[in-house]
Amino acid sequence: LGLRHQKLDVDTYAYSGEFTNAYRESRTSPALGIVYRIDPTLSVYANSIEGLMQGATLPAGSGLPERTLAPSVSKQKELGLKAESGRLGFGAALFTTDKPRTDFFSA
Asked: Following DSSP, what letter does each residue of 28-67 receive, concatenated?
């Protein structure tokens, strides 16, 4: 059990090199993980964590002012198996990442 602090610090520049936008966001989110050692050579594990992603940019012509939206949060989960035998190791995992969907349309 723990906490993860993420900070987004993104500067945007036009093709001309002119600074156009600063995007500064941060978030602290929970991080969970567990490992169970079945025997000295075999372990199973599971974890869950959230990730911070820069918000989508409303495009020009969308009918709304062009701007970057608030950040979104992805949720990542993983379940895995690790085995070791001398100099040889093996790992397998199943994982999923869910993130919010952003759709834009103009009226």
From this structure: EEEEEEEEEEEETTEEEEEEEEEEEEPPPBPPTTSSS---
